[in-house]
Design a protein that fits this description.
The protein is mainly β and about 280 residues long. It folds into two domains: about 120 residues, no CATH class; about 140 residues, Galactose-binding domain-like (Jelly Rolls, Sandwich). About 5% of the residues lie in helices and about 45% in strands. It contains two helices and 19 strands. The strands form four sheets. Strands 11, 13, 14, 15, 16, 17, 18 and 19 form an eight-stranded antiparallel β-sheet that branches. Strands 5-10-7-8-12 form a five-stranded antiparallel β-sheet, with no helix packed on it. Strand 2 and strand 3 form a beta hairpin. The two termini are about 20 Å apart.
Amino acid sequence: MTITITLFDKEGHIRNGQNDYDKVPTVMTKTEEDFAYLSTQELVYEEGDYFKIETDKENSFVVVRLDESLTETVVFIKDKQWLYEIPLNEKRVKARSDVAFKGHKHYISVRYAKDFEINQYMNLSRNSHDLNEESGAYPHAYANVETRNDATFFACNAIDGVYANNSHGAYPYQTWGINQQLDAEVTIDFGRKVAVDMMDVTLRCDFPHDSYWTQATVEFSDGSEEIIHLEKIHTPQNFTFTKRVVEWVKLKDLIQDTDESPFPALAQLDIYGTNCL
């Protein structure tokens, strides 16, 4: 099976890089069997640049790393392509490391996932590459509110694998923030059917600035619900439940502790299970 990765500018033109040794322009596109990468020693990303990852079949699992600052992640591409706008300026500075997508030297890789990577029991909600907007790759997190539409508080921050929760603000303390909205809810869309039976919830714990939720309802796409009770602790809180096959999971009906702070936030939401193939 072939896989293609291409770097485009905002006008839709393929970008060129260059290597120090031969000074020959490197066209930033490649199609290979099973595994493709792009590499260059001389290229600076510009506002509006985006990657296009193309597979030759629908419903593909790929292992991707689009920047050295991001952990390699298994993502699901439903419709043969994934458009990833490189998060620069505010979106990079606030919710990413200050070296993310920066500099001149870059290595980008995408490959089809191995069978054992697809079939294993795993954290199905982890996606270090997720963005605020739907991009064609899953899992994807979205919410009905994100504080001030600020990248520091986007829902995707809750599935990026960064657990730092003893402060608040920019990276590495990005979280899902609710702007004091009492009916706030966040959804993890898996993009396909998965079987889930366990969840870890990690709260932001910048006390006394923060408050926290004492209770939440977990809603599943099959119509079932579970109520969980949370504590004022900085470590991940584990919950198990009867296995069910779902396409999304929602955290809603968040009941806040009655302390003086109006600022609860979610650091990470980890949902465990297996893919249904």
